[in-house]
Amino acid sequence: MLGEDSTPHPQERSRREQSEDPEFLQLLDPSGQRVARPELDRWLADVDGEGGARVLAGLYEDMVVIRRIDMEATALQRQGELALWPPLLGQEAAQIGSGRALRQDDFVFSSYRENGVAYCRGVNLNEILRVWRGNASSGWDPFEINMATPQIIIGAQTLHSVGYAMGIQFDGADSVALAYFGDGATSEGDVSESMVFAASYQAPVLFFCQNNHWAISEPVTLQTHITLAERAGGFGIPHVRVDGNDVLAVLAATREALDRARQGGGPSFIEAVTYRMGPHTTADDPTRYRDANELEDWAAKDPILRLEKHLESRGLLTQELRERVAAKSDEVAGVVRNGVITMPEPEAMDVFKHVYATPNSWLSRQEDHYRRYLAQFEHHGASAAGHVSGGQH
Amino acid sequence: MTATAVNPSGQTPAEEQRAAAAPSSFPVEPDPGTRRLNTAKAIQEAIGSQMEQNPEVFVMGEDVGAYGGIFSSTTGLLDRFGAQRVIDTPISETAFIGMGIGAAVEGMRPVVELMFVDFFGVCMDQIYNHMAKIHYESGGNVRVPMVLMTATGGGYSDGAQHSQSLWGTFAHLPGMKVVVPSNPYDAKGLMTAAIASDDPVVYMFHKGVMGLPWMAKNKRSIGAVPEEDYLVPIGKARVARAGTDVTIVTLSLSVHHSLDVAEQLAGEGISVEVLDLRSVVPLDREAIVASAAKTGRVIVVDEDYQSFGLSGEIAATLLESPDARGAAFSRVCVPDVPIPYARELEYAVLPTHARIEAAVRAAVGA
């Protein structure tokens, strides 16, 4: 039976899947040339208008800076200063293009890789890194930047985004909930179920799927035989497949979808086709499962290089801009590095905090018991935290 | 209500106001009065009253609208509050529990019904990894003030996938409170407390205590319920019947059976104390220990599975307490088998009057 199946092996198909699809939205081709899509002009009025140079420079700066943050964090992990890091290398346009389309009162539910989106939301970078150093299970206060604690369980946050969106709907507000997830997550029941509910209730939610082609070692072709965007169509959700390495296409598509939601048009689905240039996390080695040629193909479509070429073709890639962006990158990298190496270690008794919002007498007794246990060691001159953190002092 | 309106503690001004107002606006445990309701109506009344006072409270689940909840927990609410606040959902427990969580994060106070607790298997990730952990994982910044209401228990031949109790399973996992009312008065007061709580609360009602005409009737499933709002504090057990010879620690429908046994044996001069736990998390260990210290004999009657659960936890509590360490201990639980479908076989495993009576007689040597 297997021999009669004419379907190619999923990994053979992975290179066949390309972007020649006429529905594939691209506004900057890999050589940096602007592709005409007049129907989308209204979403890029600021980019094409008088202040366009400033807007483009801003997007450029954001992408360069988050790449630098990402590389600095990767380096810190390699040096043993972070426990783990999930690099976003290659996905800068997908994250900045969408992140910069948001309004402050929109609310983001993301996975663990959307650190570029968190940057757009104004996060304190050291609050991201506290988690990856292993010092806390949470970094930022979600209500300060309107972005939930990153979700580790694949796809689970999509349901929270729909519930949040229904709350927005009930309040009569015109903000939007965003669910960020990857190509692998689309195979999770939670993601399909969240689309059922979003469509049923016409909730103001945007499903933003970064198809970076790999779920750890599994290619996207193992997850689906049609495009991920087409899946949304089955739920009755408007959908678009965009070049995720094209910051302008992502920006325009996200703005259009957000506007639809604000006008009461319900959910949308964006598949941003991009590529995870690095490992899934610093704990894995992608050379074990993917082809170096594939990496090379995608390097030629690099999102930052593409915007640089575009800026250059318009005479906007000035020395001043390059220097300013480089200085900002250095500054931010310094903040990250210094923040990480000077970060205070957590206290042992912190484990009992925040299990409940209201008192739980039994847990309080467990806490007291543990405190008394730790107190036994104090006369040896070791602090409580020092004792349990296994000889770091 | 919207995220922009919250302060750094994650509370809206309205929430802060409500939290401050709660103790005085909810007189604790008033006299039950004389008006009688069944447990289902008491639950409906609690939810309806909270919905009237607070636009953030809403109900969501399967068949909670026109049907009124298949065990009548939401009857009448759709007519009073409309489909925007009494929401029938597509058939995915994972999805509507996950959405309840999202709505709670947004500032709502959802009451989400999981039709049968047995269905937790398809949605446990959202319950224990999200509903129960978001507060902790967010460093205390995000609260999930959600009630997960669910039907438990057997006794009516509904088979192994519709008859379980399972409160021990939820109680084992940190981050959620677990309440199990046995009667109409507690049902209303615990629901009011659950909706007011800033923690997620799993609210588990036994189908056999709802007072439904199509279920086996139980005389205690109809009782006096105050018309005004009141809280039954989460984490406080109640001595349902005072006694001196032996303590039955129990909850839910088994409270009724235990009281029946206690009444019968009183005629023989055996004095049985019945402690209705009402909450499993937090568990009122002080009340258990106090009663055990008084009678010196403890029998746990629990419709959940025998091993690795509530009855074992109570035994450990007694052993850890200097006041109750010497108490004699036994338990009447469901043996570690799936709940049988055939009525005769189901009643062979449930904690019936006969099994409880035998345990009491064994404990007091009568």
Describe what this molecule looks like in 3D:
- The complex is a heterodimer of chains A (393) and B (366).
- Chain A has helices spanning 10-13, 45-48, 52-78, 92-99, 115-121, 125-132, 142-145, 157-171, 189-201, 220-223, 228-234, 247-262, 292-299, 303-313, 319-341, 361-375, 384-388; strands spanning 24-25, 107-109, 177-182, 205-211, 214-215, 218-219, 239-243, 268-273.
- Chain A is an alpha/beta fold.
- By secondary structure, chain B is an alpha/beta fold.
- Chain B has two domains: 13-22 and 30-224, 3-Layer(aba) Sandwich (Rossmann fold), CATH 3.40.50.970; 238-364, Rossmann fold (3-Layer(aba) Sandwich).
- In chain B, 36% of the residues lie in helices and 19% in strands.
- Chain B is built from 13 helices and 14 strands.
- Chain B has helices spanning 13-25, 39-53, 77-81, 93-106, 124-131, 134-137, 167-171, 184-196, 253-266, 285-295, 310-320, 343-349, 353-364; strands at residues 36-38, 57-61, 86-88, 109-116, 147-152, 177-179, 201-206, 222-224, 238-241, 246-250, 272-276, 279-281, 297-305, 328-334.
- The N and C termini of chain B lie far apart (61 Å).
- The interface between A and B is large, with 49 and 54 residues.
